[in-house]
Give the backbone structure.
Amino acid sequence: MDDDTWFDEEAGPLVRPYAMTGGRTRTLQSDLDLITLVVAARGRHAEPESMDPEYLNILSLCQSPTSVAEISANLKLPLGVVKVLLGDLIDQKLVNFRPALAPDHEVLQAVLNGIRRL
């Protein structure tokens, strides 16, 4: 019997998400939400040989501003896991982020009125 016959490609990742975060479910970066934009810090370089692949994947995705939701979707990881991993990268100053600003109610109303006129 082949040793690899138990593995099923469709089963998904073999590492549980909480293992990627060391069991952590929260980050100190409370400003991270779905539409927060994250970008790799210029002039700061990670040591690839000392980083987990998830961190390297995030840094690769963040070469241009990318939302937390896009990172989560691209990596096929739960949002909570991505926030914890991003928090680690922010703490290491390897990525920068800009909290999303709440849209102005008047602007939203003007957009809605414009759509209704169409």
Residues 9-117 form a domain with the Arc Repressor Mutant, subunit A fold (CATH 1.10.10.10). The chain has a mean pLDDT of 81.
